[in-house]
Amino acid sequence: MIAIIVGLIIALIIIVVVVNAIQQHKEKVEAEMRALVAKQKAIIDESEELIMAMSLLPDNPGMVEILSRRSLNAAKQMAQISPDLKGIKNRIQEFNARLNAASELASKSESEGQFQLPDNEQQLVQILQCIKKLRVTLKAEQTKGAVDAQVFMQQDQRLDGMKIKINIESLLKRGNAAYSKEMLGSARQYYEKALTTIGNVAKPTEYTQAKKAEIEEKLHEITAELKNTNAKDAAKKAKSKEDDLDLLFQPKKKW
Asked: Mean pLDDT, the chain, as a whole number?
């Protein structure tokens, strides 16, 4: 009897250990699945936020297509990990529909729309942050093989060109504001910075060439105005000195 009881106790202990091991393994697998689902959800959330932020930029259906495909792939991964996940099938259908619409727009036109620099500095910062995030995401998708090299180069150059435009237009705007207030020194600094930005562009475009000519003309005007101002100041000083000499050597009055 003692042997049977000991054997039952040992068997019970073994059963408890095995059950605990199975339970721990199950909990570990579930935790890993939740982490994988959360990772894909974060990808979807980031892609959707970037698409919303792109409303501040000129229309770019090609980039919307890339982000839509990114969301769709993440949603499909979620469905594979957790098929019973609530609402995932509807999300996949939504992403599919948007991807098809973006693909159709991208195939029709990839011309860049007009861009107007916002007056709000905070909005300008948001645009630059959006461009930075888009380029990082684009590179990540290209590394994964989701974007081919040609599309990557096209979109990356387009985003880089937008950043360059913003920097140039922002400096021009500040330079023009300083020029209108006759702050010629500050205006010249802004224009020279804009000219340096253009000089750092690897491949000149019609836009950069036009802006270079415009900025050089403004710098020429400032140089001419400063020379004119300096000449006037020199003439005033010479006249003042001449008046002082006349006053010093004029005939003494007799009282």
From this structure: 84
